[in-house]
Design brief:
single chain; alpha+beta; seven-stranded mixed β-sheet; four-stranded antiparallel β-sheet; 32% helix; elongated
């Protein structure tokens, strides 16, 4: 095991209301400059006091953009990958009914369900010292030393226990800085996890990066005494135990504008519709579904309906015109949901159009 000389370790739990489906150059904040520059010989563990997914994503981005990792490293604790399509990754209806928020992270990789039983770690370093395998080995070794859990790293760089996935991984590589973040399934609500990720078949054709579905397992199901809080302590101690400096325990930090100048702006950027849904690669929705030839193709660009292609004449010109007036250049969001719900255009069409209306409503069930 290789240790970097000036490693700082931060742990952040990130959720919103207990569950989630995770801008400019600024001067370092007071807490950051004191902790990382006045006494860089210390190895620190930071724990976020926030349970807001968007605040914790903002801190991650703030650190990535504002710290110099040439002589120091940082372990941070993250949510849909950057190049994914939420309409094919998650069940928007189930999320809406259960109050689950969707967020898009800056890195690639697959979709992750977050609640208070899912611990998330971000490893910051310079681009030159970026090493995903080493980061994952640190997690595996700490679990082995304290709970005798025989975790292994797959060729895809997931962490496995008894062939079940307990951790996924993703990364972002910049010109100077880099980070690698991963999950750790400790005591996640497995029923809700599968419920939120069971996707409705909406006839979507997309070139977005799909998640690779894998059977998952909670660490607590194998080791009943394990908990998120204990893992934070164990990982923190494991990373600093070879340090010559004194370990002062966990440092709980508040992700506030006062301590991290500019974080409020970053939080807004992560929590708005244009980032979460508008950054989706273009896709096409074909209706009707099944073996029939599509009657209508809905072309979506940046989360907005760009074009309607009517494939045959079962929808007459008048109804085609009214559908175009209702849908064209509209974002797939709550405003369009309400317009569709109150529109009478579907009532005067054939019986199959009730299914078209239902599909369109599903497309508009966005969480922000």
């Amino acid at each position: 095991m290789t240790y970097l000389r000036y490693r700082q370790i931060c742990f952040f739990r990130q959720f919103r209301q207990g569950k989630t489906i995770i801008l400019r150059n600024m001067k370092l904040s007071t807490i950051a400059s004191q902790s990382f520059h006045n006494d860089v010989s210390k190895k620190l563990v930071f724990v976020s006091k926030s349970t807001n997914i968007f605040e914790n994503l903002a801190i991650e981005d703030w650190l990535y953009k504002n710290f110099d990792f040439e002589t120091q490293s940082l372990l941070f604790i993250v949510v849909i990958g950057r190049h994914q399509n939420p309409w094919v990754e998650v069940n928007l209806k189930n999320m809406s009914e259960n109050g689950v928020f969707l967020s898009r992270r800056n890195s690639g990789g697959g979709t992750v369900y977050h609640d208070t039983g899912n611990l998330n770690c971000s490893f910051f370093s310079s681009r030159a010292r970026y090493n995903r395998k080493s980061n994952l080995e640190n997690i595996c070794q700490s679990m082995k030393c304290n709970w005798n859990l025989d975790l292994t790293i797959s060729p895809r760089e997931d962490i496995l226990l008894n062939s079940y996935k307990v951790s996924g991984t993703a990364s972002k590589l910049g010109h100077k800085n880099a980070y690698h973040h991963c999950t750790l399934l400790v005591d996640v609500d497995s029923t809700k996890l599968h419920h939120m990720l069971k996707v409705d078949q909406l006839g979507i054709k997309s070139n977005s990066t799909p998640s690779v579905r894998s059977p998952t397992l909670n660490l607590k199901s194998i080791c009943s005494q394990i908990s998120v809080d204990e893992i934070i302590q164990v990982l923190g101690n494991y990373y600093i135990r070879n340090s010559s400096s004194q370990f002062e325990g966990l440092n709980f930090v508040e992700p506030s504008e006062e301590k991290f100048p500019g974080i409020d702006m970053l939080k807004l950027s992560f929590s708005n519709w244009h980032w979460t849904y508008g950054k989706t690669p273009s896709f096409v929705v074909c209706w009707p579904l099944g073996e029939q030839s599509p009657e209508l193709s809905i072309v979506v660009q940046n989360g907005q309906i760009e074009r309607l292609d009517f494939q045959n004449i079962t929808i007459d010109k008048e109804h085609s015109r009214k559908l175009s007036e209702l849908l064209l250049n509209q974002k797939l969001d709550n405003n369009l949901y309400n317009k569709i719900l109150s529109s009478n255009v579907f009532e005067k069409m054939n019986d199959n159009c009730a299914k078209l209306k239902e599909m369109l409503l599903l497309l508009c069930l966005t969480s922000v």
